[in-house]
Amino acid sequence: MTLTDQLLTAFSQYGLPLLFAVIMIAAAGIPLPITLMLVAAGSFVALGQMKFWQVIVVASAAAVLGDQIGYALGRWGGHQVAAQVSRKKAWATQMQRAENFARRWGGAGIFFSRWLVTPLGPWINLSSGMAAYPWTRFLCWDIVGEVLWVVLYVALGKLFSDRVQALVDILGDLAWVIVGLIAAVVLGWQLLRYARTSNAAERSRKTARAGA
Amino acid sequence: MKSFGWKQWTLLVAFVLVLLATGLFSVRTVRRAVYWRFHRDEPVRPWMSVPYVAHSYHVPPQVLYEALGIPHPPHDHRPIKEIAEEQNRSLDEVIATLQRAIARERVSPSPASPPTPATGRSP
């Protein structure tokens, strides 16, 4: 039996307390197939085995709590490492830039990594803590994003309750396609920026030589 | 253009790898979606309960309960792995029994059974 089968079998046996524990552990950074569990929970709701609102409350609370653990690890574990590193001048500038970036884009990053680009979620928790992103703002974006994630996947599971496994396979691949597209855009943009600056530098060198 | 340094080469290699991986996942997603569109049945897994298998295969649950010798009603929501352990049978054996019952039901539907299993109601 695969890990997924084992988790889902345990979920069928122990119900919501197990869902809470697994989602919290996964949100804190241990990779577990929680999307499948949420979709399966949706099918259990459709079969009258669980109540929709109970699943939403339990899963959202577990996800938010797990995210706070990730944030705390970044803030008090990672931030100390970052503080040590920041003593070197070059690193201090980099750290400052990272903090500024997190403060400027943190909200969107937290929100979208909760439900759209879910594989990035644990990393965003850690990096938000490390960059000392304000905790109340982190919590607000986190709650909104996690509730949306839980409602979305449980509703999908309820809607396609006869084909849970197939739906999860598609959703799992789709999540990685979205992550890949974002990474390709970021890397492509970096390459393009380098090509532009080096072209501009070459042109100015040529002009300078022609002038001499 | 100025020649690439090691940073730019790393970026370029990462960019190509990311594109390849994204392409691979896109193809897999489309293939799965196409398969999903044309094949309604999904394999029976150990975590599934008898009502879930009945719901997924669109057969009345009592057909499956009878095949496994489980009294019905009420609905037995235990995973089939647990049922197999209780009956001292292997999981494959239980899955094969369910699949045979599903095949029989599809060839000659039982007259007393409703067309679809009971779904969407609270216990």
Shape of chain A: elongated
Helix-and-strand structural type of chain A: mainly alpha
Portion in strands of chain A: under 5%
Global mean pLDDT of chain B: 84
Q: Biggest interface: chains and residue counts?
A: A-B, 41 and 43 residues
H-E string of chain A: HHHHHHHH
Beta-strand share of residues of chain B: under 5%
Biggest sheet of chain B, in brief?
A: none
The end-to-end distance of chain A, rounded to whole angstroms, is: 75 Å
* Biggest sheet layout of chain A: none
Shape of chain B: elongated
The residue fraction in helices of chain A comes out at: over 70%
What labels would you give this structure?
heterodimer; A: 212 residues; mainly alpha; 85% helix; 0% strand; B: 123 residues; 5 helices; 59% helix; elongated
Describe this structure in words.
The complex is a heterodimer of chains A (212) and B (123). Chain A is mainly α. Chain A has eight helices and no strands. The model of chain A has no long low-confidence stretch (mean pLDDT 86). The radius of gyration of chain A is 22 Å and the shape is elongated. Chain B has 123 residues and is mostly helical. The longest helix of chain B has 33 residues. Chain B is elongated. At the A-B interface, helix 1, helix 3 and helix 8 of A face helix 1 and helix 2 of B.
